[in-house]
Amino acid sequence: MKIYLSKINESWIVDRVRREWYLNNKSISTKFLNQANIVWIISPWLWKKIPKKHLESKKVLCSIYHLDFNQKNNNDLENLIQMEPFVDEFHVISNRTKDALQQFTDKKITSIPFWVNQDLWFSIVNKKRLKEELKIDSDKYLIGSFQRDTEGHDLKSPKLIKGPDIFFDIVKEKFSKNQNIEVILAGKRRQYLINRLTNDNIPFKYFEMVDLKKLNKLYNVLDLYIVSSRIEGGPQAIVECGLTKTPIISTDVGIASEILHKKSIFNVDNYNNAEPNVEHAYKNSELLTIPNGMKRYIKMFKAINEN
Fold first, then answer.
1. Which residues contact 271 (CB under 8 A, 6 or more apart)?
2. What gap in Å lies between CA 185 and CA 208, rounded to an integer?
3. 149 pLDDT tier (thresholds 50, 70, 90)
4. Which of 10, 116, 127, 238 is the most exposed place for a label (fewest CB within 10 A)?
5. What is the C-alpha separation between 220 and 149, in angstroms, rounded?
6. Do the strands 181-186 and 224-227 form a parallel or antiparallel pair, or are they unpaired?
7. R_g of the chain, CA atoms, integer Å
8. CATH topology of domain 127-286
9. Which residues does 272 contact at the CB level (< 8 Å), separation at least 6?
10. What's the whole-number average pLDDT of the chain?
11. Residue 230: CB partners within 8 Å, gap ≥ 6?
């Protein structure tokens, strides 16, 4: 059995997943397509870059992260329609995506969250020293969001599936009751939230592109991380918060219900009732660390190879 992972090179989490897979599974993997008998299309929008002869002659597994059948001009759905005949099985990283994909295909779908590298994400005990290092006031209550919130074409329009408007509304209400709140933002394309926070005079700090070591520190310094998405594949931030023991609440998207306590999940009307449960999130996230987090993938590929 030799598995080939499609290339992506988009500075996205899937790039890291690909690197970690090859590093930890050398005996059953190859970087040469002609040597593989299983092709893992880990970036579904790039499937056309794989020669058709390989798609037809090898076992093909494709990962799907999220689907929105209600979205107009849905390029992801059109891509899926074109790709589906060449795929033998599908992989998703959450049961929610599995439920959505089952509306479209009768092919086998396996739901396995991505593993997480415990060498990158870990808890830091000395929060006071961490705040000093990051030049953050020691008495601030810090609320974080590290995923993009703006569409790429104009850097102004909100990426609504990520729910930046929901995040802002939550922060605005909390700030009206506690002026000591400060927002911590990281990542690309945060202009929507930057503009709204600025216009409402809500304090924030923006760490645009940081390395993973610093991102781990940003998780650790937070008092609360909020996932406000309407649709998600993961997000991996849920697992990263789990391992760093960062208090987190989330909408019921992606893997939220598989990792977080039910009391940590909210909808727009009841977010004030959501309560972080650090130990519950940590316990479930720890199950996904390397190498245990990869074992279910290896089992899945062995089954594909034998069929």
1. 170, 249
2. 8
3. confident
4. 10
5. 22
6. unpaired
7. 20
8. Rossmann fold (3.40.50)
9. none
10. 90
11. 160, 161, 162, 163, 166, 251, 253
| Cα–Cα distance for residue pair 223/148, rounded to 1 Å | 20
Output the six-digit token pair for 106: 């009768």
What are the backbone dihedrals phi and psi of residue 143, each rounded to the nearest 5 degrees, phi first? -115, 130
* Backbone phi, psi, residue 150, to 5°: -120, 140
* CA atoms lying within 13 Å on the CB side of residue 85: 6
Return d(Cα 214, Cα 114) in angstroms, integer: 22
Can you read off the two tokens belonging to residue 166? Answer: 């929901």
Residue type, 63: S
Q: Is 298 exposed, middle or buried (0-12, 13-18, 19+ CB in 10 A)?
A: middle
Cβ(19)–Cβ(285) below 8 Å: no
Quick one: 175 exposed, middle or buried, by C-beta within 10 A (0-12, 13-18, 19+)?
buried
Q: 278 pLDDT exceeds 80?
A: yes
Whether 33 shows a pLDDT value over 70: the answer reads yes
**So where are the chain's domains?**
3-114+290-306, 127-286
Determine the length of the chain: 307
Residue 168, token pair as written in the block: 């802002």
DSSP labels, 131-148: HHHTT--TT-EEEEE-S-
Contact (CB, 8 A) for 276 and 248? yes
User: Above 80 in pLDDT, residue 267?
Assistant: yes
For 154, what's the count of Cα atoms within 13 Å in the CB-facing half-sphere? 5
